[in-house]
């Protein structure tokens, strides 16, 4: 259970129209992982971007892919592209399935969190485990959400409603900045393809009895692109996803063991694909 060295970390980022931020995130991740881990990899899960993300990802592959020109990090970056739209949840599930090492770190590819704060998550893990308290998930907890006011209000209401409905004890349901032990996925199956996946993950982690710790992290305004949160199909998908999750976890299956929802993603079998429209 201990995380003493050697330590192996897989980091991944979903990338959906994140051309303006993804390259610096990958490079920052490599820099911080060189210091924190003995073995590491950085994975980008791309599907359906219509900005210039493909060009940026091609370049990252050229620098750090299997034949990369950087000798220190050659082969440490994997770009996984999917032809079909996965949704945010599908992209996270593909990321979890692709990670090879015992510790998995993920955050969003839009740069609203600072990858370098992974240091604080690893420190918390080490501190707890040195004191004999095993940890399965280290969760970020936004110090202050840097989004427009209406979004902050919705986020606040969403958190409190979900915490009540699902009896959650954590303080920030939707902080996508987390360090997770891969072993939890031997117990937990994730099924959601929308943003509901963060709630699904944290609910199942809690119900399965895994130990979590929270670490305050910064949140920043978007420097590039626009949030996908407020488009109607997305909101509808989230509402349907929430209803299904509530039904399975609270009504059918109060213990929170893997739910019988269908799992349409073949784990870890990404398909290479067509170029998106430019
Ligand atoms: N694959 C996929 N990824 C998405 C989708 N929407 C958002 N993302 C990814 O999720 C991250 C966060 O999305 P965002 O729209 O900023 O959500 P917000 O931070 O809650 O406003 C982005 O960096 C995208 O990479 C989607 O429909 N499909
Ligand atoms: Mg965002």
Overview of the structural elements:
- There is one protein chain.
- The chain has one domain (8-252): Spore Coat Polysaccharide Biosynthesis Protein SpsA, Chain A, CATH 3.90.550.
- 37% of the residues lie in helices and 16% in strands.
- It is built from 7 helices and 7 strands.
- It has a 7-stranded mixed sheet, sandwiched between helices.
- The chain starts with 7 loop residues before the first strand and ends in a 26-residue tail after the last helix.
- The structure holds guanosine-5'-diphosphate and magnesium ion (MG).
- Residues 14-16, 18, 47, 86-88, 91, 108-110, 112, 227-229 line the site of guanosine-5'-diphosphate (GDP).
- Magnesium ion (MG) binds at residues 108, 110, 112, 227.
Annotate the secondary structure layout:
Elements: E1 8-15, H1 19-36, E2 39-47, H2 53-64, E3 77-82, H3 87-98, E4 103-107, H4 118-130, E5 137-142, H5 149-165, E6 177-181, H6 197-207, E7 212-217, H7 232-252
Parallel strand pairs: 1-2, 1-4, 2-3, 5-7
Antiparallel strand pairs: 4-6, 5-6
Helix pairs in contact: 1-2
The chain binds guanosine-5'-diphosphate (GDP) and magnesium ion.
Guanosine-5'-diphosphate binds next to strand 1 and helix 3.
